[in-house]
Design a protein that fits this description.
The chain has 343 residues and is α/β, with parallel strands linked by helices. The protein has 2 domains: 2-208, L-asparaginase, N-terminal domain (Rossmann fold); 216-332, Rossmann fold (3-Layer(aba) Sandwich). It is 27% helix and 22% strand. The protein is built from 9 helices and 18 strands. The strands form 5 sheets. Strands 4-1-5-7-8-9-12-13 form an 8-stranded mixed β-sheet, with helices on both faces. α2 packs across α3 (90-100). Bound molecules: aspartic acid (ASP).
């Protein structure tokens, strides 16, 4: 089995300078010296680093394209891919890549760590080695067990577009609030194959979508929000899409001005999707009177999608199909690759 390890940066690829104590990106030789187990198993591992390695706060859609391009160019030569990435924006990158690949038949596993690789108590080694094992896991029919974009951290494998960073302190940095784990790693790795996406069509080639429209915004409602704040966001010139973060089951203050501002934006062609501020559960517009205004204004339900998945999906569908707003809205209302449960 052959696995390609793509280094993008983040804590996992940092080492502490013995003299100054400061963290800096490791060169590949130093990294190999810290994780000799990479080359001791049955899986043949090769490494490609981003130049330079980046903190994940500095990543953007160009870097998502860069990651997808590395996978595409090496797709036939490897059985699986592991992307080492800072944890801060990993859920955005994993979501974005899940929308970029059509007909994926091989695993792409994101992982990172809370402590740098050279630190004694670091979680880096376990995360990398298990992610590699998952990326190289094939069944007896010769099919990848996890043929989707996934995220592994601290014993749990999640669908990439369902994961959210929840903890800046603990090793268990992520959770998938609205979808079960795809696998759990203890002494053995136990896969829940019912929850894993079906493999693509091996006879068809991989297709990569690489257009993103970044003219989007997140508008988070709060008690006491003023018309000026809402207007400032909705009147951004050239705005194409808004993630509207609402209360509970998708509720919003029932001010007439809010309805009018949203309606006017929708009429100008801005796509607005309702995302609850709750981590668990789904938007259910119309359940309470206070969400009826949103429905009437033309706001679409985001169901139980994460903010990371919704934002990147919006960039993706606007980038690919922005001329056809009916199609864009339809795509935002249905699951493209397991990112939402449309009930
Ligand atoms: N700031 C780092 C990053 O996201 C944190 C980490 O890697 O966990 O790149």
């Amino acid at each position: 089995m052959r696995v390609l390890l793509l280094f993008t940066g983040g804590t996992i690829s940092m080492v502490r300078d013995a003299e100054t104590g400061a963290l800096h990106p490791a060169d590949m030789q130093t990294f190999k010296a810290f994780v000799p187990e990479l080359f001791a198993g049955d899986v043949q591992v090769e490494m490609i680093p981003f130049e330079p390695l980046l903190d994940s706060s500095d990543l953007n859609p160009d870097n998502w394209r860069q990651m997808a391009c590395v996978v595409q160019e090496n797709y036939d030569a490897y059985d699986g891919f592991v992307i080492l990435h800072g944890t801060d924006t990993m859920a955005y990158s994993a979501s974005a890549l899940s929308f970029m690949f059509d007909n994926l038949c091989k695993p792409i596993v994101f992982t990172g760590s809370q402590l740098p690789v050279g630190v004694l108590r670091s979680d880096a080694k376990e995360n990398i080695l298990t992610a590699i094992e998952i990326a190289a896991a094939y069944d007896t029919d010769g099919n990848a067990i996890v043929p989707e974009v996934a995220l592994y951290m601290d014993g749990e494998l999640y669908r990439g577009n369902r994961a959210t960073k929840r903890n800046a302190e603990h090793f268990s940095a992520f959770n998938s609030y609205n979808y079960p784990a795809l696998a759990r790693a203890g002494v053995h790795i136990t896969y829940d194959r019912q929850q894993i996406r079906p493999i693509g069509n091996i006879a068809r080639p991989l297709h990569v979508f690489n257009r993103f429209d970044t003219r989007v915004a997140i508008l988070k409602l709060f008690p006491g929000i003023t018309e000026d704040v809402v207007a400032a966001v909705l009147n951004i010139p050239d705005l194409r899409g808004v993630v509207l973060e609402t209360f509970g089951a998708g509720n919003a203050p029932s001010h007439e001005w809010l309805y009018k501002r949203l309606r006017a934006a929708v009429e100008r062609g801005v796509v607005i999707v309702n995302k609850t501020q709750c981590n668990t559960g789904s938007v259910s517009m119309g359940q309470y009177a206070v969400s009826l205004n949103l429905l009437k204004a033309g706001v679409i339900s985001g169901y139980d999608i994460t903010t990371e998945a919704l934002l990147t999906k919006m960039m993706h569908v606007l980038g690919e199909y922005g001329e056809d707003l009916v199609k864009v809205k339809k795509m935002l209302s249905v699951s493209l690759c397991g990112e939402l449960t449309n009930v």
